[in-house]
Amino acid sequence: MTDAADEHRITVTVNGEPHAVEVEPRLLLVHLLREGLRLTGTHIGCDTTNCGACTVLYDGTPVKSCTMLAVQADGHEITTVEGLGSLSELDPVQEGFTIEHGLQCGFCTPGMMLTAKALITNNPNPSEEDVRWGLSGNLCRCTGYQNIVKAVLWAAAKQHGHVAETNGQGTTVSGRT
Amino acid sequence: MSQALDEVKIGGLGSSRQRVEDARFIRGRGNYIDDLKLPGMLHMEILRSPLAHARIISIDTSAAWAIPGVRLVLTGEMAAQRNLAWMPTLSYDTQAVLATDKVRFQGQEVACVVADDPYIAKDACEAIVVEYEPLPVIVNPIQSLAPDAPLIRDDKEGQTDNVCYRWEVGDKQGTDRAFAQADHISRLKLHYPRSHPSPIECCGSVADYNAATGKLTVYMTTQAPHIIRAAVALVAELPEHMIRIVSPDLGGGFGNKVPVYPGYVCSILGSILTGKPVKWIEDNFGNLISTGFGRDMYLDSELALRKDGKILAVRFHADTDQGAFFSDAQPSKFKIGLVHSAFACYDIPVGHITARGAYTNKAPGGVAYRCSFRVTEAMFFQERMIQAAAADLGMDQAQFRRINLRRADDFPARTPFGFLVDSGQYHKCLQLGLDAIGYEDFKREQAQARSRGRRLGIGISTMTEPLGAGNSREYDILGIKMFDSAELRVHPTGKAILRTGAKTQGQGHETTWAQIVSHELGIPADDVIVEEGDTDTAPFGMGTYASRSTPVAGAAVSMVARKVRAKARKLAAHLLEVSEEDIEWELGRFYVRGAARRGVTIQECAMAAYTNMPDGMEPGLENNAYYDPPNLTWPFACYIATVEVDPETGVWDVLRVVAVDDCGVRINPMIVEGQIMGGLAEAYAMANMQFMTYDADGNMIGANYIDYLLPTAWETPGFELHEVVTPCPHHPIGAKGVGECAAVGGPAAFVNAVMNALEDTGVRNIDMPVLPDRVWQAIQTGRDVSGVPPVRQD
Fold first, then answer.
1. B680: distance to nearest CA of chain A, Å?
2. Which of B12, B115, B575, B749 makes a 20 to 30 Å CA pair with B609?
3. What CA–CA distance (Å, rounded) separates B336 from B372?
4. CB B36 within 8 A of CB B533
5. Which residues 95-114 in chain A show a CB within 8 A of chain B?
6. Residue-wise burial string across B31-64, b where 16 or more C-beta atoms lie within 10 A, e elsewhere
7. How near does any CA of chain A get to the CA of B415, in Å?
8. Within a 13 Å sphere around the CA of B150, how many CA atoms are in the beta-carbon half?
């Protein structure tokens, strides 16, 4: 990095833990998370705010951390995939993704799950259309989205204590027409 | 004694077992290339050419060297001193690592910087000053193959034109005779546009050359680590045992991560020169503008038809746009991949194909993008041609297929281009698809809608494709035969580790391979761990692409498990104190013939292999298997799409998509369906929006996700899946390849549906992607719409 004199001291809370760090003004939030804090679950896909692989929650709102500066996170709360559920206790979204086979290579998955988390927090009873629209800022190249949609609907149902009986074994949901 | 095991419960064949991989991926604990951090690691960035064709006059790197934190600035001239300015491709051509004389496509690698952090490396790239003298630019094969075209590959001795290969197959005279007897000849010309596999994770590597030991370890995004090791041994002139290639978790591949790219080579050279680990992480712009594209093929074909609908012969010519270097990744005997698998599902007596590759000032590639070596173009073309021919004859498109599809009792059969198709129930699949979509009802609905000015359309695509190269007699890459391998070790307590020469990129090998072991040995799948991608530990294999993993490596898993079972049988005979001939096997257990209660489990045999083996028996319970398939596998699929076209705007919406896949025996149905849906989404993408093109100056349109459109959850339609099972006659568990089927067969279903909606307009073809403006133009003019990149007219 360049001279320390250029650096800004910021305090950012990540997954509930406060961090006071010195950052270069141009440092991207995703690099602070991945390199500075070694939270490598947040991935970099396109650098252009299109793919959503780098999505994290910023005070609960999904943002693309590849086009946000670390200094903008000063005084704010960030949630990454590492803060979604714990190692032993999964978040319903994480459960839904594995039960409904909502991931293949896993690269888009953290961003997709965080977007989904915010979606079902704000809209606890989403329709399939709500989910498809809500996820439209996140790209996936493996799944064709159908199982991702099912995963999010599963997680929404789980939040209410209603778990869908289907578990990805040959069932299908219709798409937008 | 124990009861017979329930195979589905232990996670064997047919179990939709939840994926092992997910445990780390859903917690953000995957290990992708960019997650790797080694002590003292430096970072590399690449400077790319802004011009598509230019002579390099000078490169001034002094300002870059002056930036604090810069450790190395590499140019082509410096690479040339180490004989590394050029490298061989997987198709016997050469490709520039860093340009020395000229740049030949926009985005070509010109220099690279190694620095303490990636921000500094990017700053330093911007400080490099390159002076170029622009040269005439060629953006399509029509221009490239014209007699007076400027020579692109003047670096190649003896190269006097822009042709990079010629290839021919079939029976020209026989085909000509059949055409002479035809009642009708149908013709179609089309362009399958250039597309990019575009995994969300781009390419990258961490090269770590240890000067003390002389060992080079390269962590890199590769679908084929063993091929890379062999290539690095040849390029970098390092002994092969001192090279270790490790492919970590891959964020998708789709064929993009098969070739050797300059970035990998530069990171290796950077590590050798600096003595430190060097990380190169490609950005999305670099990935799209420079790495392996798919397709970009021009097809011109004719079908000879009898008036009753029987196809008498096929002939076609294909020109491929290879870009600046011929760096296809494909079997060496087949210069245009397996394009001659076109029409394999139809009973056509004779055919003839000619093909030609052209150099242009575009990025090199021609990779098997979710595709068994250009079968995507073959099947798209086949199904577009079938629909056009049916329309020409005034026949129903489903009936035209019924007349020409091979029948279930026709197998095995030789295609006019030499393939042996060995199994399938094509008519059954087609009928299942037609019933699912409600074909006759839809046609009535379509006619009613038409009378009210609405345009509905239905498109069918039926195809079989060759998946799972080898056999080794016919298939090799750079001379290395296309077999694959597996190695299985069963530990004393009956738990096991399996390694293969394949490399998963999302297909779920860690889950599926364990299920095959479970099927063969009765060991619960949860007791088998699977490892791939490390050339120091995995047996030699050709990697994962072209849907070859289950057909080849998956077969090797079966075979190695059977070898292990054969040894376990000897141990069982010893433990049960009977002769081996008196031992019977049921899943997970050997027992004495006629005394089923006297038995030992596979786990007991495993323990005995280490604690209680008979005199003279080698201890341990492990083996390996190299599998050379006797034939390719031939899955069949029927995809049907219905659409509505808005004639005012040219926008078309998908109403329904029905997919019938017969990929033989399904190991994990959940994973198979996931693969099919992923393929269908790519098919829709290809038909609707996803392409990269070039302007007349060679500027790539599509080097970012703003110009290169990938469908989101919002645009992507829902899919209705159906299944038929015709076991593969030669695969040990009857499985066939499946990963790419829907991406290969799917695009034609969508395009045929749109063309069906426009059938009364006289328009025969709109090149993909079938963009609204192209549809609108076709409706307005009543003429075909081409997607060929434009040529400068001044």
1. 7
2. B12
3. 11
4. no
5. 97-99, 101, 103-110, 113
6. ebbbbbeeeebbbbbbbbbebbbbebeebebeeb
7. 32
8. 13
Q: Is the separation of the CB atoms in B667 and B517 below 8 Å?
A: no
* Record: contact B22-A97, CB cut-off 8 A: yes
CA–CA separation, B363 vs B367, rounded Å? 12
| B399 catalytically annotated | no
Interface residue B646 vs chain A (CB under 8 A) = no
CB contact under 8 A, B200 and A107: yes
- Contacts with B659 (C-beta within 8 Å, 6 or more apart), sequence order: B433, B637, B638, B639, B676, B680, B719, B720, B721, B722, B742, B746
**Known active-site residue B429:** no
Percent of chain B whose predicted confidence (pLDDT) is above 70 = 99
Per the listing, tokens 């140019």 go with B75
In this structure, which CATH number among 1.10.150.120, 1.10.8.80, 2.30.30.240, 3.30.565.10 belongs to the domain A92-166?
1.10.150.120
Shortest CB distance from A107 goes to which of B251, B656, B681?
A: B251
ipTM of the complex: 0.97
For residue A40, give the chain B residue with the closest CA.
B35
> What interhelical angle do A92-99 and A146-159 show, nearest 10?
140
Q: Do B198 and A108 touch (CB under 8 A)?
A: no
Strand, coil or helix: what is B414? strand
Closest residue on chain B to A90 (Cα): B27
pLDDT tens sequence across A108-153: 999 999 999 999 999 999 999 999 999 999 999 999 999 999 999 9
For A4-83, the fitting CATH number among 3.40.50.1100, 3.10.20.30, 3.30.70.20, 3.30.390.30 is 3.10.20.30
Nearest to B401 by CA among B347, B338, B340: B347
pLDDT tens digit sequence for B343-375: 999 999 999 999 999 999 999 988 889 999 999
Nearest to B464 by CA among B550, B547, B572, B369: B547
Q: Please indicate whether residue B223 is annotated as part of the active site.
A: yes
Say if the Cβ atoms of A173 and B718 lie within 8 Å.
Answer: yes
Looking at chain B from residue 107 to 136, which residues have their Cβ under 8 Å from any Cβ of chain A? 117, 119
**Distance, in angstroms, between A13 CA and closest chain B CA?**
18
Q: Check if B681 contacts A (Cβ < 8 Å).
A: yes
Catalytic pick among B370, B406, B656, B774:
B370
| Closest listed residue to residue B260, CA positions, set B96, B403, B449 | B96
pLDDT value, residue B177: 98
Q: Cite the beta strand spans of B503-571 per DSSP E.
A: 528-531
Say yes or no: A58 contacts chain B, CB-CB below 8 A.
no
Two tokens, residue B113: 């910087």
Q: How many CB pairs under 8 A join A and B?
A: 207
Q: Nearest by CB to B251, which of A43, A101, A144? A: A43
Nearest CA-CA partner of B46 in B259, B210, B208, B283 = B283
Q: Residue A94 forms beta bridges with which residues? A: none
pTM of the predicted model, to two decimals? 0.96
Amino acid present at A27: L
What is the rounded (10 degree) CA torsion for B124, B126, B130, B135?
140
pLDDT at A164: 53
- Token pair listed for B522: 């009765």
Per-residue model confidence as pLDDT tens digits over B429-461: 999 999 999 999 999 999 999 999 999 999 999
Domain ranges of chain A: 4-83, 92-166
The phi-psi region of residue B40 (left if phi > 0; otherwise alpha if psi is between -120 and 50; otherwise beta) is: left
**Under an 8 A CB cutoff, do A175 and B718 touch?**
yes
Flag if B712 and A48 touch (Cβ within 8 Å): no
DSSP string, A80-144: -GGGSS-SSS--HHHHHHHHTT--SS-SSHHHHHHHHHHHHHH-SS--HHHHHHHTTTS--SSS-
